[in-house]
């Protein structure tokens, strides 16, 4: 159970970069203690939600995100596929539920949702929802009317990451602007869906970039309901995959610091350990979950 013995501070949306940088600079154990205390006041510390992700449309994406194996700009050996049939998606969702998943996320590798694909996606979403699973989708950029349609189909969460700081962003992707990402998040929020928004660490960014990235999330009018913190998985053939081989990524302690600061500045957001988790040691994962 969440710790109700301590008063819960109101959620702030006026964090400054200086305040966030000061949190990063705290002695490691003090930072982890503060983050764990905030987490326990807002969540059951023994609860972990298991989510399953399915790529319902793989490869051939027109975006040039430097970390992504699904971009058509890079030669990663991935074969592009069409949007999966609804029955295959529902079979995968049932298998995920049988395996203990509480949430099922459907991802499509494209720049933006096309109206012609909307009915098929609505059928996927409503079918998964009928199984009693939380529904999540990541389908690229959305117009407000498309967000309303997905909400009507039963979509609970929409994932649209900021990836990194505004200052570092153009070193990662140039085919979509930072503002376009923010506009999609606003459309999702306006439609009444929950937002899932986080980023990827270890792409060559500095601590100042991680401060700026968390500042973006912590000053949104409404904090993300779900906040995934990913650790770069270096994919051969992608620019960041090749760069990681030369420069290395983020240290384990710095990654834990990022998770801890995210917990403090976005206290009501469910911080999720996402991509890169299985490559981490059990000890590092344990520190992240404190």
Question: Topology, please?
Answer:
Elements: H1 17-24, H2 28-42, E1 51-57, H3 86-98, E2 103-108, H4 118-130, E3 134-138, H5 144-153, E4 157-159, H6 178-190, E5 194-196, E6 199-201, H7 207-218, E7 226-231, H8 239-247, H9 252-265, E8 270-273, H10 282-288
Parallel strand pairs: 1-2, 2-3, 3-4, 4-5, 6-7, 7-8
Radius of gyration: 19 Å
Enumerate the spans where pLDDT stays under 50 for 5 or more consecutive residues: none
Text of the CATH class: Alpha Beta
- Overall morphology: globular
Class computed from helices, strands and strand pairing:
alpha/beta
Overall mean pLDDT:
88
The amount of beta strand, in percent, is 5-15%
Second-tier CATH architecture: Alpha-Beta Barrel
Overall helicity: 25-40%
Could you name the CATH homologous superfamily?
Aldolase class I
Helical segment tally? 10
What's the domain count?
Answer: 1
CATH fold-level assignment: TIM Barrel
Read across the widest sheet, the strand sequence of neighbours is: 1-2-3-4-5
> Helices and strands, in N-to-C order?
HHEHEHEHEHEEHEHHEH
Model description:
There is one protein chain. By secondary structure, the chain is of the alpha/beta class. The chain has helices at 17-24, 28-42, 86-98, 118-130, 144-153, 178-190, 207-218, 239-247, 252-265, 282-288, and strands spanning 51-57, 103-108, 134-138, 157-159, 194-196, 199-201, 226-231, 270-273. The protein has one domain (17-288): Alpha-Beta Barrel (TIM Barrel), CATH 3.20.20.70. Strand 1 (51-57), helix 3 and strand 2 (103-108) form a beta-alpha-beta unit. The model has no long low-confidence stretch (mean pLDDT 88). The chain starts with 16 loop residues before the first helix and ends with a helix. Strands 1-2-3-4-5 form a five-stranded parallel beta sheet. Strands 6-7-8 form a three-stranded parallel beta sheet, with helices on one face. Helix 1 (17-24) packs across helix 7, helix 2 (28-42) crosses helix 9 and helix 5 (144-153) crosses helix 6 (178-190). The chain is built from ten helices and eight strands.
């Amino acid at each position: 159970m969440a710790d109700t013995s301590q008063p819960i501070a109101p959620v702030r949306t006026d964090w400054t970069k200086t305040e966030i940088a000061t949190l990063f600079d705290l002695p490691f154990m003090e930072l982890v203690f503060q983050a764990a205390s905030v987490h326990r006041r807002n969540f059951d510390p023994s609860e972990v939600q298991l989510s399953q992700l399915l790529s319902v449309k793989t490869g051939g994406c027109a975006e040039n995100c430097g970390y992504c194996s699904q971009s058509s700009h890079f030669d990663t050996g991935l074969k592009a596929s069409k949007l999966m049939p609804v029955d295959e998606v529902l079979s995968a969702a049932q298998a995920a539920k049988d395996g203990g998943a509480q949430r099922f996320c459907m991802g499509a590798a494209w720049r933006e949702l096309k109206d012609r694909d909307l009915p098929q996606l609505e059928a996927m979403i409503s079918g998964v929802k009928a199984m009693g699973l939380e529904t999540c989708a990541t389908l690229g950029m959305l117009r407000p009317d498309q967000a309303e349609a997905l909400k009507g189909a039963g979509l609970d969460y929409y994932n649209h990451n900021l990836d990194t700081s505004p200052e570092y962003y153009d070193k990662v992707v140039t085919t979509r602007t930072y503002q376009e990402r923010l506009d999609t998040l606003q459309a999702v929020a306006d439609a009444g869906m929950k937002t899932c928004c986080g980023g990827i660490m270890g792409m060559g960014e500095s601590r100042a970039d991680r401060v700026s990235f968390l500042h973006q999330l912590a000053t949104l009018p409404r904090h993300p309901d779900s906040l995934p913190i990913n650790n770069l998985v270096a994919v051969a053939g992608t620019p960041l995959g090749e760069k990681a081989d030369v420069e290395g990524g983020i240290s384990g302690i710095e990654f834990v610091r990022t998770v801890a600061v995210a917990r403090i500045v976005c206290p009501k957001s469910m911080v999720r350990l996402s991509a890169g988790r299985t490559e981490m040691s059990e000890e590092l994962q344990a520190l992240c979950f404190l």
